[in-house]
């Protein structure tokens, strides 16, 4: 079964890429390889295994919009870039958001330009309709008011 029992906790509000990838694979979506690293040394090791270029992203349930806190580094092409980006992300969060619960970093392969789309899926509870699924373009420029479409779950 794809669901990790820890995800069923009532206090879980968001799931990251690493947590949702098994579900997307189950439904036939192609997903990029994603690994969890605790520090810059592990991030470099993961990047070497995945192959360059990679993205390094902050993993914290307390900071939902990683790009707002410089928690995302894209198109990293070698171990030096990965190490520097990972350390910078962790240092910035430690300094700017000392109380944030940080679960390390996501290291993810980069999609070839033009061959993939970034998707954002959110669930909201509407006062009238109840649970609503919001689908839209992913990425740092995502704007729910402009880019999302709503669907009611079955």
From TrEMBL:
SUPFAM superfamilies: Glutathione synthetase ATP-binding domain-like. One of its GO terms (molecular function) is ATP binding. Keywords: Ligase. Pfam families: ATP-grasp_5. In the N-terminal section; belongs to the acetate CoA ligase alpha subunit family. This is Acetate--CoA ligase family protein. It comes from Vibrio alginolyticus. The lineage of its organism: Bacteria, Pseudomonadati, Pseudomonadota, Gammaproteobacteria, Vibrionales.
């Amino acid at each position: 079964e794809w669901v990790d029992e820890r995800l069923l906790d009532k206090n879980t509000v968001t799931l990251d890429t690493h947590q949702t990838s098994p579900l997307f694979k189950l439904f036939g979506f192609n997903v990029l390889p994603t690994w969890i690293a605790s520090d810059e040394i592990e991030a470099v090791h993961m990047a070497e295994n995945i192959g360059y270029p990679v993205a390094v992203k902050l993993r914290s349930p307390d900071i939902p919009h990683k790009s707002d806190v410089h928690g995302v580094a894209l198109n990293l092409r070698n171990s030096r870039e990965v190490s520097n980006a990972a350390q910078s992300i962790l240092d910035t969060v430690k300094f700017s958001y000392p109380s944030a619960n940080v679960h390390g970093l996501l290291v993810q392969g980069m999609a070839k330009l033009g061959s993939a789309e970034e998707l954002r899926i959110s669930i909201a509870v509407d006062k009238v309709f109840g649970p609503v699924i919001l689908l839209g373009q992913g990425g740092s420029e995502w704007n729910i008011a402009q880019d999302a479409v709503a669907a009611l779950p079955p």
